[in-house]
Amino acid sequence: MIWLVAFLSCIGLICAETPFNHNVHNERVIGGYDAKPNTWRWQASLQYDSYNDDSFYHICGGSIIDSFYIVTAAHCILSMDANAYRVVVGEYNLYEYDGSEQFIRVDMIVVHPDWNGDLGKGNDIALLRLANPVYDNGYVAIANLPRRDETLPHGFSCHITGWGLIDYGGSVPAILQEAAIPLVEHAVCSQPDWWSSIALKTMICAGGDGVISGCQGDSGGPLSCYTGGAWRVYGVVSYGPSGQCNQVSKPTVFTRVSSFLDWIYSVTR
After folding, report:
1. What torsion do the CA atoms of 55, 65, 100, 104 make, to the nearest 10 degrees?
2. 3-state DSSP call for residue 201?
3. Where are the domains of the chain?
4. Residue 5 predicted with pLDDT over 90
5. Which of 144, 168, 172, 158 is nearest to 27 (CA)?
6. Are 26 and 43 in contact (CB under 8 A)?
7. Is the pTM for the entire model greater than 0.85?
8. Residue 242 catalytic?
9. Do residues 85 and 108 lie in contact, with contact meaning Cβ atoms separated by under 8 Å?
């Protein structure tokens, strides 16, 4: 699910026996296009089994940050029962078994201690410890992370990826979507006709041109930016406008990873 903010209520993944589930529901990066296979290797699909019958469906994205850990959004956690989730890495087409996937059960869920369910208060970040480690099969990679409290300039081009809705009320993609999206500095994003006071300095805004945005199903996924000779995950998709996702002056908002590195490392190490 993503994230949608209607001020501010939020709406917004292996089974060893059946490595592919034809009942996967996925909700697309708006203004994006099909990613090239084996490009965004740290991208993960968080999937949920709501009926406890191994019928997992995609609810959110995530990023591999350690062989045992996935970072996602706290609002993606629908239940603290780790058995209700699985993570799929090496995924590309949600509707087909490509042979590149690793389906891994979740062993433990760690939600940021200051998350209170209010997207406007921030701290929308969670870590999933996997029951088994991600292994290098040529289709996965551990994400590089930014430096502590690092920020990037206004207009810097990053990429958003995910299996979210292609447009409001529109079709859903089977193929992982990607789109270049420009960053919006806090001084702009926090203006009254933008996101005002609910845009915090522990968040990153990107987009807002009415063309490219995240949407339902992209939550928890990465904002990847190329710096220092490497792609790094700077953000975790958190929220956007209710209704139509790609609204002018209502950019997609991400949890700023560089603001939470101490917490991340305290959990993973």
Report:
1. -30
2. coil
3. 157-258
4. no
5. 172
6. no
7. yes
8. no
9. no
- Statement: 157-258 belongs to CATH 2.40.10.10: yes
Nearest to 54 by CA among 81, 100, 80, 21: 21
φ/ψ region of 256 (left if φ > 0, alpha if ψ in -120 to 50, else beta) reads beta
Q: Measured between alpha carbons, how far is 121 from 199 in angstroms, rounded to an integer?
A: 9
* Residue 245 token pair: 């996702």
Closest residue by Cα to residue 127 from 107, 145, 147, 142: 107
- For the segment 226-241, the average pLDDT, to the nearest whole number, is 97
How far is it, in rounded angstroms, from Cα 211 to Cα 207? 8
How confident is residue 171, by pLDDT bands cut at 50, 70 and 90? low
From the list 45, 190, 213, 219, the catalytic residue is: 219
Instruction: Find the catalytic residue in 58, 75, 112, 186.
Output: 75
The answer to whether 154 is a known catalytic residue is no
Contact 206, 188 (CB under 8 A): no
The closest alpha carbon to 124, from 250, 239, 245, belongs to 239
Reply yes or no on whether 22 is catalytic. Answer: no
Rounded distance, CA 10 to CA 16, Å? 32
Dihedral pair phi/psi, residue 179, rounded to 5°: -155, 140
Specify the residue for token string 């420009």: 182
